[in-house]
Fold:
Amino acid sequence: MAQSKIKTGWQLAKQTLQFVGNNKKLLILPLCSTLCIIALFSFIIDPLLKIESSGQVNHYAPMIFAVALVFFFVINLLIIFFNAALIACAYQHFQGQKPSLRYGLKTAVNRLPQLFCWTLIATTIGIIIRAIETWIDRWPTLNVVISFLASITWTLATYFVVPVLVIDKTSPIQAIKRSSHTMHKQWGKSLTSNLSLGLFLFVALLVIAVPLMIGISLINGSNGSTLAESRLAGITLVALAILIWIGVSVVYSAARIILCGAIYYFSTTGNAPLHFDGQALSQAFKTKKKGRS
Structure:
C-alpha cells in the first residue's frame, strides 16, 4: 500500500513537472507573483527599520499592525490572482487548446471581485488561527495539536477553492462548500499527491543551502589580502543561491497549482487532463475508509 502511494505520488509529480516543462511560459505568472511580493517587501522594510531604529515601535504599534494586515492581504490577493490566471491557462491545455497568458489574466480579472472576497475570507481565517495559536501558547503541546488540526482542516476544505472560483464561477462561500464536498466525496481527507512535489522542494532547498552556506562563510571569514576577493566570491554565491531559490519557488508554485487543477478537472469531468494519467489521478487521495458500526 505504502509503495503504491509513493509510486502514485511520483507519477503525478513527474507528469506535473513535465507539464510545466512543456509550457514554460506559464512560469511567468508565478514569477510575476513572486516579484510583486519581493517589491512589496522592499517597499515596506525601509520605513519599518527606521521606526525600529528610532525606538518608537510602541508608539507606532497600532499603525504597524494595520499596515501589516493590509500588507498580508495584498500579498494573499496577488498570490490568489496569479494562481487563478494559471488555473485558467492550465484548463486550456487540459482541453487540448494552446494556453494563452492573455486569456488567463483576462479570466482572473473577470473573477477579481470573487477572488477579492475569497482573499478576505482566507486572510481573516489565517489571522484567527494565528490568534488562537498565540492565546494557547502557554500550553505548547495543546498549541501544536490545535494549530495542526486547524491548519490542516482549513487547507483540505479549501484545496479546490481557486479552481472552483475560476472554472465553475461560483461565490467564495459556494466554492468552499464545493471544494470541501469534492475532497470528502472523491478521495477522503488524506493528501498523498503532493508528497513527491514536497520531496522535490526539499532536495532543491538542500542544493540551494550549499552555495548559500559557502557564500556566507566566505563573507564572514575573509581576512588579510584575500578579503576583497573572498567577499566578492561569497556575495556571488549568495546571489546565486537567491536566484536558484526564486526559480525553485516559481516552479514548485506552478506545479502545485497545476496539479490541483488537474485533480479537480478529473473529479468534475471524469476525464484525465491532457498529458496526465487518469489512474494516477484517481489515487491522488486515499479513499476514506468507513468506520465499523
